[in-house]
Design brief:
Layout (H helix, E strand, L loop, with lengths): L16 H9 L2 H15 L4 E11 L28 H13 L4 E6 L6 H16 L3 E5 L5 H9 L4 E3 L18 H13 L3 E3 L2 E3 L5 H12 L7 E6 L16 H14 L4 E4 L8 H9 L4 E3 L12 H11 L2 E2 L11
Parallel strand pairs: 1-2, 1-9, 1-10, 2-3, 3-4, 4-5, 6-7, 7-8, 8-9
Helix pairs in contact: 1-7, 2-8, 3-4, 5-6, 7-8, 8-9
């Protein structure tokens, strides 16, 4: 199967549903070859970015997202906590730096941050930057003034996932709309902050929804700088706890099409790695994923141990971003 790709160096490519669908349907070998070719045009194929995620305010979120263990609408056993202190975040940043992390991401279970909480988060961003790390936060929806304040604090990335396609979104959450999500992304980009936005695979959506999600992201005025691809972590007490596991090959296809349709974006192999075999993760790297979260917990769900990750990356010959590149193989 041949898929025509027309390069537009003068402007971001405008993808069609037919083109994205064609890549999903391509023979697996052809798809991975194209994804790896695109990946090598923009990134070192043997390096990944290492990030760490810290929940600075857990539980009690007023949103009703069907996948989320932190929603106040669901009985998951997650206890609401107060906002972490600046001193706790400083300690987390230093520990992250010592472990080889390049980016520290802070997550808070809010619909939108309050003014006094945003003051503290801005100080946390400064502390992360002082340790020489990239900073990322996910705090819910933002207005323009909040985005400008985060930009003034030196924030590098703002994470705000669109989760799924526009058509499927209302089946995942009812307390906000896709346009709410896109409005926050527009305000973040307008403030000069890099955008981190992706979705979750395995929520009962169809392939057409996976196509729609990637199409929406790739056709933003500027595609996200980081694109997390998450496999649903099924949490007891959430409406999506009974969802069927996503087929591993289909997950790899999603990663590969994300790489092809957003060639300059960092594709983040995010939640769900704890449930993946080493071989499946290796296929995701081959498909163009080049960022992972390290540490044994994400926000409230498990993540592979540092020892397992180190062993996998060593066996694959993959180095952390910024490490000296391995010698190129020659015939």
């Amino acid at each position: 199967m041949t898929v025509q790709v027309v390069e537009r160096p003068d402007a971001p490519r405008r993808w069609t549903r037919e083109a994205v669908s064609a890549w999903f349907e391509a023979p697996f070998a052809d798809l991975l070859f194209r994804a790896q070719t695109v990946h090598r045009q923009h990134f070192d194929p043997n390096q990944v970015q290492l990030s760490r995620l810290v929940s600075i305010k857990t539980g009690g979120c007023p949103e009703d997202c069907g996948y989320c263990s932190q929603s106040a609408h669901h009985k998951t056993g997650v206890k609401p906590t107060k906002l972490m202190t600046l001193e706790q975040v400083v300690a987390a940043a230093r520990a992250a730096k010592a472990s080889g992390t390049q980016r520290l991401c802070l997550g808070a279970a809010w619909r939108s941050p309050r003014a006094r909480d945003l003051d503290t988060v801005c100080a946390m961003i400064g502390a992360i930057k002082a340790e020489g790390l990239e900073s990322c936060v996910t705090l819910g929806m933002l207005d323009a003034e909040q985005a400008e304040r985060l930009a003034a604090a030196g924030l590098d990335y703002y994470n705000h996932n669109i989760d799924t396609s526009r058509e499927y979104y209302s089946l995942v959450t009812s307390t906000r709309t896709m346009d709410d999500r896109l409005g926050t992304l527009e305000r973040v980009r307008g403030a000069g902050i890099k955008v981190c936005s992706g979705g979750i695979i395995g929520m009962g959506e169809s392939r057409a929804d996976r196509v729609g999600m990637l199409l929406l992201l790739a056709n933003l005025p500027q595609p996200p700088d980081s694109v997390p691809i998450n496999a649903l972590m099924r949490v007891d007490g959430t409406p999506l706890a009974g969802s069927s596991s996503i087929d591993g090959i289909e997950f790899v296809r999603t990663v590969a099409v994300a790489r092809i349709s957003m060639p300059r974006s960092v594709v983040r192999l995010s939640a769900g790695r704890e449930q993946m075999s080493d071989e499946l993760q290796a296929l995701c790297f081959l498909a163009g994923a080049n960022s992972i979260f390290i540490g044994e917990q994400l926000l409230t769900t498990p993540n592979p141990s540092r020892e397992r990750d180190a062993s996998l990356l060593e066996r694959l010959g993959i180095q952390p971003l910024g490490a000296p590149a391995a010698p190129a193989c020659s015939e």
